[in-house]
Amino acid sequence: MIRLTQFAVREKSVVILLAVGIFLAGIYSWGQLRQELIPDIELPFVTVITPLPGAGAEDVATQVTEPIERSMANVPRLETVQSTSSNSISLVFAQFDFNFRVTYRFNVFIQLCAPCTAGRIEHFGHF
Questions:
Q1: Is residue 79 within 8 Å of residue 46, measured between CB atoms?
Q2: For the chain, does the N or the C end have fewer beta carbons within 10 angstroms?
Q3: Nearby residues of 58 by Cβ (< 8 Å), 6 or more positions away
Q4: Do residues 98 and 120 share a domain?
Q5: 3-state SS class at 92
Q6: What is the pLDDT along the chain (127 residues), one digit of tens a residue?
Q7: Can you give the residue range of the structural domain that contains 25?
Q8: Residue whose C-alpha is closest to residue 126's, from 49, 39, 41, 45
Q9: Side by side, which strands form the sheet with 89-96?
Q10: Total number of domains constituting the chain
Q11: Do 21 and 67 lie in a common domain?
Q12: Is the domain of 22 the same as that of 56?
């Protein structure tokens, strides 16, 4: 161990080159890692945004929001449905069981909600 210390003190340039080489090898190896920093998480939430231009909040609630809520009530593993109706727009937010795969059932939601909205769905998405 004493020899290594004496060598490091005598040959500073070799030690610096060795440290730079190890640093560069570490940066190269870090770039080659195949690691997902953000895993692909699918949360079981569905949001339906439907406009009804020129309609009041009560009209939106009865003509758009309530039919969407009724059609979503038939979907299995539904935990909660929350909705907001305001002037000219309806927002329905549904939460499902965490074992529920929303992406596989996405077309089912669209088919269930399409008749009650007459093609007015502006945004239909999941988180």
A1: no
A2: N
A3: 85
A4: yes
A5: strand
A6: 788 888 888 888 999 999 999 999 999 988 887 766 666 677 778 888 888 888 888 988 888 888 888 887 777 778 888 988 999 888 888 888 877 766 666 666 666 666 666 656 655 555 4
A7: 2-32
A8: 45
A9: 78-86, 89-96, 45-51, 123-126
A10: 2
A11: no
A12: no
Residues 11 and 68 in one domain: no
What is the Cα–Cα distance from 75 to 78, expressed in whole angstroms? 6
Is 37 part of a structural domain of the chain?
A: no
User: What is the rounded distance in angstroms from the CA atom of residue 57 to the CA atom of residue 85?
Assistant: 6
HSE toward the beta carbon, residue 101, CA cutoff 13 A: 3
Task: Please tell me whether residues 10 and 56 are part of one structural domain.
Answer: no
d(CA 100, CA 78) in angstroms, rounded, equals 9
Take residue 105 and report the two structure tokens written for it.
Answer: 């059932």
Residues 22, 72 share a domain: no
The residue behind tokens 């529920």 is: 100
How long is the chain? 127
